[in-house]
Amino acid sequence: MNEFLQKELSRVESLIEIQKDCLTDGGDGASYMHGMANGMILVHSLFASQQPKFISRMRRPYGRNIRHKSAKSKRKR
Question: How many Cβ atoms sit within 10 Å of the Cβ of residue 63?
Fold first, then answer.
């Protein structure tokens, strides 16, 4: 690997660490940050000729129901 590529890969690694830090708080943007982190990991693995080591997605908190707009009500009227 040449020096320029090595320098740029280290910059990407630092950006990946920033993204991982944003995932620990589990805020509203966690799913966005998760996708961005995995995208950066993919790009890094392509240029470094390695297998990507993706981070797993955090689980949704229990007791938090998500209702989708396409869900139809099962109540009888």
Answer: 5
Question: Tokens 């990507």 map to which residue?
Answer: 52
Per-residue model confidence (pLDDT) at position 31: 79
List the structure tokens of 56: 């797993």
Contacts 24+ apart (CB under 8 A), 12-19: 12/40, 12/43, 12/44, 12/47, 13/44, 15/40, 16/40, 16/41, 16/44
pTM over 0.85: no
Residue count of the chain, please give it.
Answer: 77
Q: Are the C-beta atoms of 23 and 30 separated by less than 8 Å?
A: yes
C-alpha to C-alpha distance for 3 and 6, rounded to whole angstroms: 5
Give pLDDT < 50 ranges for the chain: none
CB neighbours (10 Å) of residue 49? 7
